[in-house]
Amino acid sequence: MRRSLFAAVSLTALIASPSWADEEINDERTQPIETADADGAGNADNIVIGTNGRVTLIGAPAPAVHVNSNNNLTTDNGAIIQINDRDADGNAVSVDGAVGVQMDPGVEGDFVHNGRILLDDSDDATDSETDDLIDTDGDGQADDPDQEFDGPFAQDQNKTGILIGAVDSDFNPIANQDAVTGNVTISASGSVIVQGQNSFGVRAVTNLDGDFISRGSVGVTGEGSRAISLEGGVTGDVQVGAVTAVTPGGEGVAIEGDVGGGIRATGLIQTYGYRTSTRYSESLMALFESEAEAAERGDVADNLDSGSAFLIAGSVADGVFISAAGSIQAYTGGGAAVEFRPDEDGSGDMVIGEVALPDDFTSNRTDDDDDGDLLGYGVVNEGTIGNNGIFDGKDATAFLIVGRNDNGVLRSVILGAGGLSNVATVSATAYDGRAVAMHFGEGAQLDTVHNAGTIRAASSLGHAADGFADDSYGVGEAIAIDLDENSQIRSILNEAGTISASLIGGGQSAVAIRSNDDSLEEIRNTGVITTFVSNIDDAYSADDIDLIAVDARNNNGGLSIIQEQGFDADGEALNAPVINGHILLGDGDDRVEILAGAVNGDIAFGLGADVLIIDNATLNGAVSDADGDLVLDVTNGQIGLTGTDALALRDAVFRNGGELQVTIDTADRSAAFVNASGSVTFEEGSSLSVGLDNMIGQGGVFDIVSAGDLTLADEAGTLTTSDSPFLYNASLERSSEDENKIILTLQLKTADELGMHANQAAAYDEALAAFETVESLGAAFASLRNAEQFYGAYDQLLPEYAASAIQFALASNDAAAGALQGRLRNARLAPDDLAGVWIQEFGYYADRSGSALAEGYRGQGVGIAVGLDRPVGPFYAVGVQLVGAASEIEETNGFDQPMVSLTGQIGGYAAMDLGGFDISGNIGIGYDYFETDREIRIGDFSALTSADWSGWHATASLQAGRDFAFGSWVLRPEAAVTYLSLFESGYTETTSGSNADAISGLALIVDDRDSSTVLGSGTLTLARRFGTDVSWWAPSLRVGYRGEFSSSGGDTTAQFGQDGNPFTLRSEQLSNSGALVGFGLSAGSEYSTFTFAYDADIRDDFVRHVARLVIRLTF
């Protein structure tokens, strides 16, 4: 009983003893602490550094916190572990070799870091003002300073935020260390910040028997450093969150040992060694120092490369996963964003197993069971992987897998399961350098590269003179997926994704997929595989740039390229797949199946027994085969051959819906487009169409198909040329000399055969000459297939010839004359003979329908007329009149901007009462100005021309009428004769735009033009007057008839360019008679009169509206 009681008392005492409770630190400690002496009395214990806890050392490189016993270490959110390199007086003290937290080899225990570890360097880089050579403020002096930092990124050396294991005095790992057993966790609130050369945020130099999980942030700044360096193996999982490494010659994350679990990247991981991670304008980039400039000044260059952002150098049992929140970004030419390469100190192949995720690891994988998820590939990217070279001349690789050659023994990187899957973005950007999105070097082994996202490489034209790789200006290359010799990748599956290689501004080549090894057996596409060049600089030509979708010229194992329709999870068809760029194949038995969408580019087969199948798809490009051993099979699709194409093959069959499209670009072509040593068969429902890439003069006879055996199931249908160049008569037929040959005859149509009206025919020969002079214009016309397209294009070439100018001059004249008659009517009705000033605003609109001889036009104008008159002798009004008007006139078809016409006129008028009849007349002379912008658009062709010219006009008119009063009613018959003559000076168009010189032969030179008309009209106006002699108003209604007694001129003589011959176009006269209708309202008093009137001139296919407002003030 006593022994039992003693034991119970002893146990209670032990439980109450401090040695059984964690040692908590909630104050500031200025001396190192260790778990082996947690309480300072020699007792080992777990240590918790609380929210208010601080461990701050000054000039003491030894570990601030040392885990040297089998105990746990925890830092709470708010806790700080810090080693300063300056004392309280600000004097520098050495902290080289400083360690924030060290876990000794062989210890057992967990480290959970929720606080902050800070190993700063107070000697930050500054602007030393040694390279301030740029005058950005324009004061004539180099800027001082320019805020571009100089010197190294750090001064301190060999610092480590968290050290797992032990190093010797040279900071190399001690050999044969025991593993650390336990988990190391940096929580979301935890951070490790280290500044120093050859330094580390986290460094494990021995094996870790547990997990390494970093959900917080780890940063390192300094040359030759690493943010996270796991140099030993990890038996559990490795997870990496936010990482920033600014380190010339260093890496962001390096995992060199084997990992028994999986590697997962879940945050932003960015690494660079440059002074900037932003690309600037040329003047700002020139502020940075190149290596040569830095050497001259004793400075550190600003464009030094880092290594890779994420380096994996050991085997990984449960694969590598980049989550949707993961983003791995490098800014370097010295490494990749993600790199797989066996560690130089390792042995054997490096094996990456299938990605296995813990249960509910990502938000899109939550379920009710407790099982994890197998993703079917060794590497899965659901985030963003990118590399941006920033400086000119830097090559940029985003994703790299490459083996290691150890003394002739190749150690491979083997991806298990399906291989690699990208469902998000992998991109590389270079400037005057090579950009490679995914690079598989020798020793890379995997079954499939699967892409359901975007794999993109882009190389941009760099700055011409910023001091960086200026001698490499314009040598950029872009490769989206690059497979080296001795890589072993069986297939590339682009599952509704995008694989893109592009050049921006200029460069040498863009390649979407390049295979230099025979192991690649298949490329399967349901998405987009594309190459392109954009915003090309004037110094470069797209014709000199290689755009290659698939470059497999060095793959002689036999490659199959299959493009087919993709479907979503509900079975709905996705967007049609497409390949943009050439396909270049090697000397194996290659096979290309285009089963959906389009291939826009040439296909060049090498040696071997090759097959090309087109089914429900289109091929837009040339096809060639090096040895003529090709079988072609087309169903519900098209194959297009053009230019100098001469497809030599063994057999060809065109099934139902299959179409052979041939496009001719020269009249002296002799070879057949298709030359088969075996059979060529056109089955029922197949067709053959012909087109032109350019004008071929008067035409010619061309061989289209030549075969050992030609079979036409529906000869009449196959040889029908319903879809052929409109400018030519085309006929297809078997050759009379060889029934196994199809020939095409093209003969240029005459103007009559084209159905041209007289004016179109008058310009036809000169238009044909212009097609030859302006080659791009000829190519545009040669491509037109029907009358609507042709005339829509042809009429754009002709000058305006419908005499619209005189019709709008007449509209302006009618408006002014009508205003004058309104003024004279009011003068007659005025109670006193008083002088008056009157002002009229008027507007008009005219619309002429198109006819068999000319395009229609429409337009509108506004103007103002001002007059001054007074009674003189027998005349109740004698005066002068000033008129100004502006018109806009546009053709009803085409793309021209409206022609602008400005008119100014001065004239005189007089009116008298002669035996009860009102007799009036006026004369005038005016100046005219015209301006036009002509725009021609025909397919991809466009041209801009402009011209302005002047002219003058003269006009005279005589009117007679009489009022018959019936009480308050007034009936007025009236007759008028009007003469108008217009002279327009000749003009020469000027061309504009980027192709101004090339289209100069299209500019019109137009001769002087005269036109005139004499018109007579009779009207009957009924009005009623209300009011008194002092104040009155009178509405009116008019009807009448107008006839044209004579008209002359209006012919337009023009030519295309200085070397063209003139042609004359004749305007079609309007109907010489028509109806006049109108209404008005007049009012007056002792001091003023007012008139509003509307009139319409209505003829066949023509109508003119005029509205005017007159105000007269008497004095």
Q: What best-fitting shape do the alpha-carbon axes yield?
A: elongated
* Proportion of strand residues: over 45%
Helix/strand class: mainly beta
Q: Specify the biggest β-sheet.
A: 44 strands, mixed
Q: Give the number of DSSP strands.
A: 86
**Total helical segments:** 10
- Average of pLDDT: 89
- The end-to-end span amounts to 141 Å
Q: Taking Cα atoms only, what radius of gyration do you get, to the nearest Å? A: 44 Å
**Low-pLDDT segments:** 1-19
User: What is the share of helical residues?
Assistant: under 10%
Describe this structure as you would to a colleague.
- The structure is a single chain.
- By secondary structure, the protein is mainly beta.
- Helix content is 8%, strand content 48%.
- The protein contains ten helices and 86 strands.
- Strand 84 and strand 85 form a beta hairpin.
- Helix 7 crosses helix 8.
- The N terminus is likely disordered.
Give me the secondary-structure topology.
Elements: H1 2-16, E1 23-25, E2 28-29, E3 33-34, E4 47-49, E5 54-58, E6 65-67, E7 73-75, E8 80-84, E9 99-103, E10 111-113, E11 116-119, E12 160-164, E13 180-181, E14 184-186, E15 191-195, E16 200-204, E17 208-209, E18 212-221, E19 226-230, E20 238-246, E21 251-255, E22 263-265, E23 268-272, H2 282-285, H3 291-297, E24 310-312, E25 320-322, E26 327-331, E27 336-340, E28 350-352, E29 356-357, E30 373-374, E31 379-381, E32 384-388, E33 396-401, E34 404-406, E35 409-411, E36 413-415, E37 419-422, E38 425-431, E39 434-440, E40 444-451, E41 454-460, E42 477-483, E43 488-494, E44 498-504, E45 509-515, E46 522-525, E47 528-534, E48 546-552, E49 560-563, E50 578-580, E51 582-585, E52 591-594, E53 598-600, E54 603-605, E55 610-615, E56 618-620, E57 623-625, E58 630-635, E59 638-642, E60 647-649, E61 651-654, E62 659-664, E63 674-682, E64 687-692, E65 699-712, H4 715-718, E66 728-734, E67 741-748, H5 751-754, H6 758-762, H7 764-773, H8 775-782, H9 787-797, H10 804-829, E68 836-848, E69 857-872, E70 875-891, ...
Parallel strand pairs: 1-4, 2-5, 3-6, 4-7, 5-8, 6-9, 7-10, 8-11, 9-12, 10-14, 11-15, 12-16, 13-17, 14-18, 15-18, 16-19, 18-20, 19-21, 20-22, 20-23, 21-24, 22-25, 23-26, 24-27, 25-31, 26-32, 27-33, 28-36, 31-37, 32-38, 33-39, 36-40, 37-40, 38-41, 39-42, 40-43, 41-44, 42-45, 43-46, 44-47, ...
Antiparallel strand pairs: 29-30, 34-35, 65-67, 66-67, 68-69, 68-86, 69-70, 70-71, 71-72, 72-73, 73-75, 73-77, 74-75, 75-79, 76-78, 78-82, 79-81, 80-81, 81-84, 82-83, 84-85, 85-86
Helix pairs in contact: 7-8
